[in-house]
Design brief:
The chain is of the alpha+beta class. 43% of the residues lie in helices and 9% in strands. A hairpin with a 3-residue loop joins strand 3 (31-32) and strand 4. The structure holds iron/sulfur cluster.
């Protein structure tokens, strides 16, 4: 996740990116292992990507994290709420059938 302080991707040249989707797009580079982080790194960590989600009252924020920041930057819809709506329901049914009914 690009806004997480604990994840990054490092190229063979030592350039650091916050996501594999951003590799080799120089303006997305957040630093280099020999030189340290640049301001881009801190800009990613401060990105407020949840504001729209909170205003929608979305229940998937802890699961989704507010969508892909790269998609937003490219003007694509980062929201996969429809998928979560279907997926979560299916996963609950599968879990119920495989774990709860199996015990009885
Ligand atoms: S599903 Fe959509 S509204 Fe919900 S947290 Fe993800 S991006 Fe935000």
């Amino acid at each position: 996740m690009a806004v997480s302080k604990d994840s990054c991707t490092i190229t063979p040249k030592g350039d650091i990116y916050k996501c594999v989707e951003m590799i080799y797009e120089e303006k997305m580079c957040v630093g280099n292992i020999a030189k340290g982080y640049n301001d881009n790194y801190y800009n990613f960590l401060r990105a407020h990507q949840y504001d729209d989600c909170f205003s929608k009252g979305c229940i998937y924020i802890p699961l989704c994290g507010g969508g892909c920041i790269r998609s937003k930057e490219l003007g694509r819809n980062p929201c996969h709420k429809i998928i979560f709506d279907n997926l979560v329901s299916d996963l609950i049914q599968i879990k119920y059938k495989t774990e709860v009914l199996k015990q009885n």
